[in-house]
Design brief:
The chain is of the alpha+beta class. The protein is built from 3 helices and 2 strands. Strand 1 and strand 2 form a beta hairpin.
């Protein structure tokens, strides 16, 4: 006999927490809860549908943010745990530049 891939939570629903492709302000992966009251197979169908939409960029929110502004925001969020000098190096455009001699 096959076992269910997803187990019931304390409310009796099948639940999965799926990464939606974004990050929180703290730099952690933002996860979305998906529920099903029917069955584990129904929840798996919903999860696969969500993942395919995520991978096909169907859930992308358009914004007026330029790539440069996005990269600065990403640097603040993703590298927040680094040492001060390392963060300054990441922000320095000439950190990896070697002049020609």
């Amino acid at each position: 006999m096959a076992t269910a891939k997803y187990k019931r939570n304390k409310r009796g629903q099948f639940e999965a927490r799926i990464w939606d492709g974004t990050y929180t302000e703290a730099g952690l992966k933002h996860r979305v809860s998906i529920y099903s009251r029917k069955s584990s197979a129904d929840l798996e169908r919903k999860v696969n549908e969500f993942i395919s939409k995520r991978d096909n960029l169907s859930n992308v929110i358009s914004s007026d943010l330029s790539f440069y502004e996005y990269s600065l925001k990403w640097l603040q969020v993703a590298k927040a745990a680094r040492e001060v000098n390392t963060r300054e190096m990441y922000g320095n455009p000439y950190a990896f530049y070697e002049p020609e001699t």
